[in-house]
Amino acid sequence: MRNVTKDNITDVFMSYMGPETPERLRVVLGSMVKHLHDFAREVNLTHDEWNKGIAFLEAAAEISDAERHEYVLLSDVLGLSSLIDLLHADPDGTSSSVLGPFHISGSPKLELGGDLRKDCDAQVLLAQGCVKDPDGNPISGATLDIWQTAPNGLYSSQDPDQDTYSFHGLQTVGADGRYAFTSVRPVEYTVPSDGPVGDILRACGRHPWRPSHLHFIVEAPGFRPLVTEVFPEDDQYLDQDTVFGVREDLVMRYQNMPAGSFPETGFALSGAVDEAYLKVDFDLTLVPA
Predict the structure, then answer these.
(1) Residues of the chain with pLDDT under 50
(2) Hey, which bits of 37-137 come out as E strands?
(3) What pLDDT shows up at residue 200?
(4) Are 141 and 221 in contact (CB under 8 A)?
(5) How many CA atoms lie within 13 A of 259 on its CB side?
(6) Distance linking the first and last C-alpha atoms of the chain
(7) Predicted local distance difference test score (pLDDT) of residue 100
(8) What distance in Å separates the CA atoms of residue 245 and residue 99, rounded to the nearest whole number?
(9) Which end of the chain is more exposed for a tag (fewer CB within 10 A), N or C?
(10) Do residues 169 and 181 touch, judged by C-beta distance below 8 A?
(11) What is the Cα 153 distance to its own chain's centre?
(12) 9-34 residue pLDDT tens
């Protein structure tokens, strides 16, 4: 096509696709380009602004590595990650929420009632619940990949002073579907703001804070995997999560438990916790695949 104009360029792009182009690719890529072209026309995008956008993408690529995923972070702070979760939400199951850029595969085995706190000098948190189906039946053999920040607000992948799998564990539930472990209360933290995504946040007058949360990836044969996180109801950033990850059904409550009430059996720390501690009960519902 030699007569390309600002009005027909989108149609010309679509006409260049060959007959062997997979239909889903034609739909997704075609729609993306249509919206991209419409965006440029709508705002009358200048060369300078376009160059700044290219520079942003280059900077995001340059700062990304095996442990830092700037494009994932960009998707998170633009709300795209959460929007995709919401588009595919099933009302019969626990809501999904963003994976985030700090998950590490290969977490070590965490026995039922096991401890993630280890030698951390912070108040004990007892977390427990049931993995169940939409009818309330426990799901035997489900696995939970669990991770969280340390009390300094850093994940182990961010902090050279932490062990690789600090505050990470992989737990398999029994026939009753129950999971249980001890840890410490996660804290609020900021997403990385020293790169190009941080520049966007500052330019928009936005803060980089996330409410504190516990992460879960829950899997069981015959069920859809669940990637989610749960948030305490008293967190100051609950209604201002910079990555839009909070859902109403993911809000939980920490109970203040008195000294001397820690379970005498069933936990790695049983018999070793004399002081007051926190407890949270939170069930996780998986939907059939």
Answers:
(1) none
(2) 114-115, 124-132
(3) 97
(4) yes
(5) 2
(6) 46
(7) 79
(8) 9
(9) C
(10) yes
(11) 15
(12) 999 999 999 999 999 999 999 999 99
CA dihedral 188, 216, 226, 238 (to 10 degrees): -20
φ, ψ (nearest 5 deg) of residue 262 = -65, 140
Give the start-end residues of each E strand in 19-140: 114-115, 124-132
Q: In what order do the strands lie in the sheet with 251-252?
A: 168-172, 143-147, 214-219, 226-232, 251-252
Parallel/antiparallel/unpaired status of strands 251-252 and 226-232: parallel
Q: Is residue 272 classed as helix, strand or coil in its secondary structure?
A: coil
DSSP 249: G
SS3 163: coil
Q: What sign does the dihedral 29-33-39-42 (CA atoms) show?
A: negative
Length of the chain (residues): 289
What is the token pair recorded at 270? 């049983």
What pLDDT does 101 receive?
76
Q: Per residue in 92-116, pLDDT tens?
A: 999 999 987 788 899 999 999 999 9
Phi-psi domain of 139 (left: phi exceeds 0; alpha: psi -120 through 50; beta: other): beta
Give the model confidence (pLDDT) of 181-215 as tens digits. 999 999 999 999 999 999 999 999 999 999 999 99
| 3-state secondary structure (DSSP) of residue 144 | strand
Q: Which tokens go with 66?
A: 């095996």
For the chain, the average pLDDT equals 96
**Can you give the pTM of this predicted structure?**
0.90
Please answer whether residues 122 and 277 qualify as being in contact, where contact means their C-beta atoms are separated by less than 8 angstroms: no
Distance CA 97, CA 153 (A): 19
Tell me the CA distances in angstroms from 123 to 135, 273, 289, one per residue in order.
35, 10, 38
Q: How far apart are CA 203 and CA 201, in angstroms?
A: 6
Nearest to 186 by CA among 211, 157, 159: 211
